[in-house]
Amino acid sequence: MLNINNISSGYGKKQVLFDVSLTVNSGDVILLSGGNGSGKSTLLKCIYKLLPLWSGCIRYREHDIVNDKPSDLIHNGIVYIPQKDFYFENLTVFENLRISGNMLPAKTLNLRISDVADQIGLKAMLNRKPFDLSGGERKLLAFGMGLIHKPKLLLFDEPFSGIDNKNTVKLLQLLKDKFISENNGLIIVDHTNEANHLHNRKIKMKLGKISANSDE
Q: φ and ψ at 176, to 5 degrees?
């Protein structure tokens, strides 16, 4: 599905990733672990083309995505959900879902909004704005925005950070039932240990390199 071959990148002149290689197959649920500054979130941003590659290449379904934009990746089935600020605070839940799916035909989009809102349990909150939601509900909204396009590969940065136990359990179940069960790929960064209930592979990063790779 995804082949990362010897990529290096960073911010400005500061190098963060050093010759990282990784293969993601359909059905892989990969937990990226490691301390702060080890390169986990940077790796997700590089895959999603939010940071330029300094060297190396990334291929998705045999296609070199080096020149692709995030909108191209969404169209081809890759979605990235950052740790914070994935939604628009001044828009309603419905408007956020609509904007996230703006590349879909109108009729398809309306059906997807209804379906996704029902799946994430926010159908009764479509007219609310994010600041009227709990932290867990905002995280569910972010996940719903990612689901709109029915991605095949999801890059999820700290999905369980700052949310209560009730919504943690709900998000875990949604990931299992609505995404993982369909043999999709998932790369997740998590410091809470909740992803231990999900992953079948664990990648440990240290100082911008992969230091351990295990199947579980």
A: -65, -50
Tokens 């330029």, residue located: 52
pLDDT tens-place string over residues 164-214: 888 888 889 888 888 888 899 999 998 888 888 888 899 999 999 998 776
pLDDT of residue 7: 95
Q: SS in 3 state form for the chain?
A: CEEEEEEEEEECCEEEEEEEEEEECCCCEEEEECCCCCCHHHHHHHHCCCCCCCEEEEEECCEECCCCCHHHHHHHCEEEECCCCCCCCCCCHHHHHHHHCCCCCHHHHHHHHHHHHHHCCCHHHCCCCHHHCCHHHHHHHHHHHHHCCCCCEEEEECCCCCCCHHHHHHHHHHHHHHCHHHCCEEEEECCCCHHHHCCCEEEEEECCEEEEEEEC
Q: Which amino acid is at 69?
A: K
For the stretch 14-25, pLDDT in tens is 999 999 999 999
Residue 216 has pLDDT above 70, yes or no: no
What gap in Å lies between CA 94 and CA 35, rounded to an integer? 36
| Domains, the chain, with CATH or none | 2-215 (3.40.50.300)
d(CA 155, CA 172): 15
